[in-house]
Amino acid sequence: MDATIAFPLLVGLVAVALLFDFLNGLHDAANSIATIVSTRVLRPQYAVFWAAFFNFIAFLFFGLHVANTLGTGIIDPDIVTPRVIFGALTGAIVWNVITWVLGIPSSSSHALIGGLVGAGAAKAGFSAVVWSGFLKTVAAIVLSPLLGFILALLLVLIVSWLFVKATPFAVDNSFRTLQFVSASLYSLGHGGNDAQKTMGIIAVLLYSQGYMEGGFHVPTWVVLSCQTAMALGTLFGGWRIVHTMGSKITRLSPMQGFCAETGGAATLFLATWLGVPVSTTHTITGAIVGVGAARRASAVRWNVASNIVVAWVVTLPAAALIAAATYAIAGLFA
């Protein structure tokens, strides 16, 4: 490891990590609220408060498996230095800002993972990558939206059969209420999976600087600060991406919104329990496409969905390149 850095610089790096967490909440606010806003169950200003609350309390319901994966399962923690963490966070933040400005629902999670791999490889080559954890995460790029798609599709078919004799008005009224439940579950899953990624980054930084006794772990203050930063980011919302997620892919009814959120939440709960850092963006997009396809294939605007998929594929290498370049540039001032 490099020599330890001055405490003020360490505090500054932790602040940058929390800034990323805030931007993650800002960038991914749409994932939690797009369906409930597009179905007009809640106004945007109320929906973000609803989502932020459940983002924050997520730590009460989940373990820290994802944080441990990010801290020790993507790159070798023994090669982690403040410069590596700075490069990783810069790569993720720059890519998040670019996609947020353009209204592209890319993955904050994979931007961070790409940043870690890029900065880690710039320091120690690709031998620094923990391939088992990294490949598991890459596999989730395909599996999480696919599982969200299948679960949402099945839910639409089951619900349609159960309510086949109900009037459209009665169905809408029932699912407008149920969407409060499904949106809450999705926001819990979002807070549980996404906030833990920043926890892992801060924890491995503290570990690399000798601030942990008894081995790698995630301190309670790190858990609370990351959940708070994400919840605050969600409060500020990401309206450009809400528009893409909530209406450009397919138009949703309250019943379809419920199925999309529930299918997405189930996927996130499973991934968080397994310790897999998945993309909430990928998951909810897959679920929204699933409910649209259940109606008919032409109900999905496949050109919009395909543009989103391109952003997914580009995110990992783009963030990695920015992180590697940042690591190299930072070395000029070391």
UniProtKB/TrEMBL annotation:
It is found in: Membrane. GO terms for cellular component: membrane. Its main location: membrane. The chain crosses the membrane at residues 6-26, 46-64, 84-104, 111-134, 140-164, 304-330. GO terms for biological process: phosphate ion transmembrane transport. It is a multi-pass membrane protein. It holds the Pfam family PHO4. InterPro entries: Phos_transporter. This is Anion permease. It comes from Alsobacter soli.
